[in-house]
Amino acid sequence: MGNGVRAAQADFKQQDVEPVISAHLPSEKKKVLNSLMSGALAGAVAKTAVAPLDRTKIMFQVSSKRFSAKEAYRLIYRTYLNEGFWSLWRGNSATMVRVIPYAAIQFCAHEEYKQLLGSYYGFQGKALTPFPRFIAGSLAGTTAAMLTYPLDMVRARMAVTPKEMYSNIVHVFIRISREEGLKTLYRGFTPTILGVIPYAGLSFFTYETLKKLHADHSGKSQPSPPERLLFGACAGLIGQSASYPLDVVRRRMQTAGVMGHTYSSILLTMQEIIREEGLIRGLYKGLSMNWVKGPIAVGISFTTFDLMQILLRKLQHSTNVQR
């Protein structure tokens, strides 16, 4: 009798739980898919918008020329005259190949890390406190950088070389592997990870914090698109300023093979840059351009992601209502 009751209870529990699990799994998969799609579009739109400035910044970072707004304008104009208008987007195809998976993974990972840290710290369904908010962003950036790094290396090479040297993305991979070895595809990996921790951490932290402060003081649950752009711009400005010297170091290490330099470590690279070009002029070269490019790109990226998430949720809700 007792065994029969227990069996009946177990059967009832299984029947009760199974619909919940089956209902939860599709919604969780949809959530992840939504984050991946929104992140991919956000990265593509943002990077394409600032591609000419990004290419110009990389060219200054890897050269010993002194940076100024006038010189940046001259470089852009000279590139346009010599190679044509679309040459300003040279390397953007490689950027898209890298940025689409990078942004998709980063935004999706951020949503998942927020949920995990929320459960761990007991903030499930609520805004995270400052430290977990920073950790979620850092982990998201690190995860994306680790999975897509060789594509970043290829993008940097294409940005600083004439089109005769590398005809396409696959050609870059083949030539680097054959002439410099597969290890070269991960040259500059350490400064990238060290730079992405403060950059992604501070970017996501600033954006999420500003959205929370806005909700607390305005009484509105969601900021408007212009407000999102402004919050994202602030996030980009803070994040990129904090990690910029490491960005210069990684670019030097990534392009060493085609620029006639040999950089063996982060410290030696920094020392050589400082010795040849000075601390500020060397390690912060192109930062003023980044203060224009970075906030625009990050503002567009965060805003596109949020608006896409809202749109996809509305579409799914309307589909469910119709059913």
What does this protein look like?
By secondary structure, the protein is mainly alpha-helical. 81% of the residues lie in helices and 0% in strands. The protein has twelve helices and no strands. Helix 1 (2-49) packs across helix 12, helix 4 (92-121) runs antiparallel to helix 5 and helix 8 packs across helix 12 (287-322). The two termini are 44 Å apart.
Specify the structural class. mainly alpha
Shape: globular
What is the helix/strand order? HHHHHHHHHHHH
Number of strands: 0
Q: Could you estimate the helical fraction of the residues in percent?
A: over 70%
Rg from alpha-carbon coordinates: 23 Å
Low-confidence stretches: 7-25
SS element count, helices: 12
Major β-sheet profile: none
Mean pLDDT rating? 82
Strand content: under 5%
- Alpha carbon gap, first and last residue: 44 Å
Show the helix and strand layout:
Layout: H1 2-49, H2 51-61, H3 69-83, H4 92-121, H5 130-160, H6 169-179, H7 189-218, H8 225-254, H9 256-259, H10 266-277, H11 279-283, H12 287-322
